[in-house]
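#struct-help
A.M.: can someone run this one for me? Single chain, 555 residues.
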Amino acid sequence: MEIPSPASPTARTLARTLGLTVTAADLLERRGFAEEAAARRFLEPRLAHLTRPDAMVDRGAAAERIARAIRDREPTVIFGDYDCDGITAAAILTEALRLLGGRADPMLASRFDGGYGLSEQALDRILERRPALLITCDCGSADAPRVKRARDAGVDVIVIDHHLVPPEPLPAVAFLNPHRPECGFPYKGLASCGLAMSMAAAVRAALGAELDVRRFLDLVAIGTIADVAPLDGDNRALVRAGLDAIRAGSRPGLKALAASAKLDLTRPLVGRDVSFVIAPRLNAPGRLGRPEAALDLLLARDEREAALAARTCEDVNLQRQQIQETIVNEADEQLRQLGHREAYVLASTSWHKGVVGIVAGRVASSRKRPVIVAAVDAEGVATGSVRTAQGVDVHRALGDCKHLLLGFGGHTKAAGVTFRVERLPELQQAFAVACASQEPDDEPLVACDALLDPHDEPADVVRDLARLEPCGEANRAPLLCLPGVKLRNPKELRGGHLRADVDFGRHSFGVFGPNLGPRLQTLTSSRVHLVGELRLDTYRGSGAIEIKADAIVEA
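D.P.: on it. Structure tokens below:
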């Protein structure tokens, strides 16, 4: 493990200038915000700082076509993918068009009827409603055949998406995607929900109408965080404002969802509140069945309607958790039988394909190995989710195994795959070989961001670190290092967790290490380097501080 150097003179000057702890200023410098102006802008992101959208290719054409549909009361289908980004984007445009006087009919993709995006089955359902205009959200970039089929049926198509753009031309009236090579919009990190909000503003302008698009910030925050979009630049400003909007409770559905999930809206919300509380409940209906329950929740207009939709999402999420735990236990048994490998392929006829992605993520994280987790249908076709570890490019690894697959797609960190179950033994061996053939990631397994300065008040550090929120992709929650400390009264708790106390500088605080209890049996030194997140100790209360340990390394 590499111990960070102490804070630099530049960081100490920044701390004095901004009134921050040295620890927080050190983190800002290490993340590229050493200049006072840049640091202030990062700590205080504002909607006024958003990039002007003028250079976004096709934005004007899309706005004019949607405005015409609203003026002429043309039937318009707004089609979103089944995950949080697609659902929130569809909700934004549906609500915006209706408020502006349009006829908006929302629909969502189905994991179990056509799968991701604008599939043939999805287009069949869309065309049954005889729209004049189709707007896709969070899909469509790679769906040229379906877009052409819709055009041939007399339907104009506008694609709003943020996925990578294939070279094949897209026969759409307008194609809004910052990743288009010809798109001059400089910020490429917007998720589809952010693009949908921008489109709502453009349509408002095209109509010369009044519509406060800030009403959609709560949905943008949810879709952006859930889709693991980078929380920098424009997204940082949008999500910070969106989290405040969720707290305000102006959207009945989110207020009801927070109540059913026991999410405290009286305190500032952080990125993890969306990742681990809100997003799983919105994704759950689409994992097990129809995702429309989540869309109904976001579009609910009164408390009664919202409460019913929230109860549905909560109940389905509980069901999802139960299914997930069953699969995790069965996957653990398969892992024990397979023994140590460079990568794993797990499959079962009893597993639910809507949940295997979550399980794959957990296995990859716990085993530190790439993994495929697949559900096998009655015809012997395995549908799997792939997750990476140790920097392995799983898309490249799947390419090395394509002779054993029916199909695959995705990116370097995550992918989807289908194969015949009778090829499972061959695929287990080939996938392990393909992953092992890549150069291992040389990033250290324990990566801390900065030292906790011994002269800082820990409570002040926690206060300052809260200003780094929202944390997530491209702005992870900082891990601090306490070097050469001695654990006092260490003990292993039920469930394998660790509880201890530690003295550091003039301060003493608690240590809680999830799943680190067994580590006590392997320590041979009384001094350790402690790495983790500094936070309020809710166990002890009264403003006490603890470190949630990610790693304990012998000094």
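A.M.: thanks! The chain has a mean pLDDT of 95.
D.P.: also worth noting: The first helix runs from residue 9 to 18.
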